Amino acid sequence: AAPAVPGYSPGFKKPPAMLRLKRKRLRRSESAASASPPCGAAPRAPSMPARRNPFSSLENAPRAAGNPKPIIISSCVLHSFFIQLLEPVCEEKPVPRSEPSDRTDDLALTNDFHLPVAVPEVPSSPRHEFPADWSIKTRLLFMSSQPFTWTEHLKAQEEAQGFAQHCRTTETNLPQSIQEPKLSVELRCAFQQSLVYWLHPSLPWLQMFPRIGADRKIAGKANPWSQDEALQQVLMSEWSVSFTSLYNLLRAKLCPYFYVCTYQFTVLFRAAGLAGSDVITAVISPTTRGLREAMRSEGIEFSLPLVEESRTRKQKNSDVNLDTEAGNSLEVSNSTEDGEEPAPSDDDDDEASFSWLEEMGVQDKVKKPDALSIKLHKEKHEVHVDHKPESLALVKGTNTFTLLNFLINCKSLVAVAGPQAGLPPTLLSPVAFRGGTMQTLKARSINAKARVQLAYKDISSLEIVGPIMPHALHSLTMLLKSAQRGTFSAVLYTHEPTAVFNTNLDNASPALNKESIHKDLPACGLHPKTLDQLSQCPTLGKYSIRFLEMKDYAYTWKS
After folding, report:
1. Among 27, 211, 408, 478, which lies 20 to 30 A Cα-Cα from 12?
2. In which order are the strands placed within the sheet that holds 437-440?
3. Is the pLDDT of residue 145 over 70?
């Protein structure tokens, strides 16, 4: 026999016997506890309900026979759901926002309920239109007391008609209120039309948006091009053709805008007449010093609107401080207000900083910083904004064509390692283009009940998932305005790197008006009301709309 080892027990060799012994002891303890209590003892509280099996999932969990019961939601929980994203966000530590997963279940609606209740900040006066939001949404969740059954089970003819209306850019004008939305074929076809978007490249087994931070979702998927240079060249060649096609459509004002989504940054191209600009514009975010240097070396003229705005604000604050320190000195006050005294340049500072060495005669003995160090010192403010929303770069006019060629030939546009290695950037467009694939947003409706005092109130929800572009958001709200009788709420999930696209570029032309926009963009594929909204100057700044509500056909929102 093997020698006994101190502290060694062979009980682990027979786990079934050990488990049976534990269950037997448990039954004995329960039988002893269930005996009648002595006289005068307090009655025993009812036992707790059986614990849920932690190894069960939604697919294999037993379900009760018959019709499924509706989800019951208390009024406070329902309120907290709407306000879940409305807490003020600190700039230093932004709240991380989770992207919607590829697979959703019937209880996804309740996952967001257990959150603190907050009061939303909304504009004091409701408006008949909400501002343009140029960020890409990943998920929309509409809630209304009116059912969304009209969005379910579209007939084959209605679906085909919706695709045809999209391709032919058919304009649909609905009445202010529809009594029977489920019976309105025009409404259901328009709903299908609003879900269509165009994508390149289209790889069904890969999620092509979002691309920033998508390595975890793409990891493990088949990517035969990662180690095949010939295949990578074919993919990039096709991508270049599609990219050029989109730009030509944009320049001809047949495409209102499109997005180029890389694994590091996103580019938004907008046609002349949109966002208050009379020329083609392209905004890039986030950027780095290396990318900006490469653009400068290619002769691309661009600006950093948020960095310049910060400098202007600091200059104004310094001017105000000078005025305060000057006190009753009229001369200093006048020179400061008139701006006659120019601000010292960095070059003058550098020359002055080394002039004293020459005066002392030791300029050859002291080692001066090289030109690269001086340049980095000058650009320290630009380097600090790398990978941040403040690094937004704006390209205007003919420089956008130079940017097109730069992006096509830029080797760093495609990852060389990792799950996205060799995969071209994603092109998103509201209209068809060469090499583009028609895709549709995913939509589903859920019915629930909210507890209001002592009664229950029916609440319906509509969830839209996918790359939701600005025109799609406006089109959906126009449909819901008629179908839900002017009353609904929505929670909007934003792809955060694109929220900064709502920055006002301050390049509006005084002669620009709605008439010229409609004349110059006759067939861009947008509804006239959507075109009116997107033609306005952005007003949201670095933020995006996160909560939208309509009451009595008037909008309020929270950004």
Report:
1. 27
2. 393-396, 281-285, 266-270, 257-261, 426-429, 196-200, 437-440
3. yes
- Cα separation, 144 vs 458, whole angstroms: 9
Mean pLDDT within 371-397: 77
Whole-number Å distance between alpha carbons of 559 and 271: 25
Q: Are 210 and 419 in contact (CB under 8 A)?
A: no
CA separation, residue 74 to residues 102, 123, 400, 450 (Å): 28, 27, 52, 5
Domain spans of the chain, in order of start: 137-172+441-558, 225-306+383-437
Residue 529 CA to residue 514 CA, distance in Å, equals 11
Contact 102, 501 (CB under 8 A): no
pLDDT at 88 (0 to 100): 39
> How many Cβ atoms sit within 10 Å of the Cβ of residue 77?
17
Residues 240, 248, 422: CA angle, nearest 5 degrees: 15
Structure tokens at 121: 């900040």
Tokens 């990517």 -> residue: 223
Return all residues near 140 (Cβ < 8 A) that are at least 6 apart: 462, 463, 464, 468, 473, 476, 490, 491, 492, 493
What is the residue whose two structure tokens read 């029977």?
A: 180
The whole-angstrom separation of Cα 209 and Cα 362 is 60
Report the length, in residues, of the chain.
559
Flag whether pLDDT at 467 surpasses 70.
yes
pTM: 0.72
Question: Which of the pair, 413 or 318, is modelled with greater confidence?
Answer: 413
Using the structure block, give the residue that is written with the tokens 């069960």: 56
Where on the phi/psi map is residue 407: left (φ > 0), alpha (ψ -120 to 50), or beta?
A: alpha
Is residue 234 predicted with pLDDT exceeding 80? yes
Print the SS3 string covering 157-174.
HHHHHHHHHHHCCCCCCC
Contact between 509 and 98 under an 8 Å Cβ cutoff? The reply is no
Closest CA to 499 of 309, 288, 287, 285: 285
Closest CA to 549 of 77, 119, 82: 82
Identify the pLDDT of residue 448: 81
Structure tokens belonging to residue 433: 């283009």
Distance between CA atoms of residues 306 and 182, nearest Å: 47
| 342 pLDDT more than 50 | no
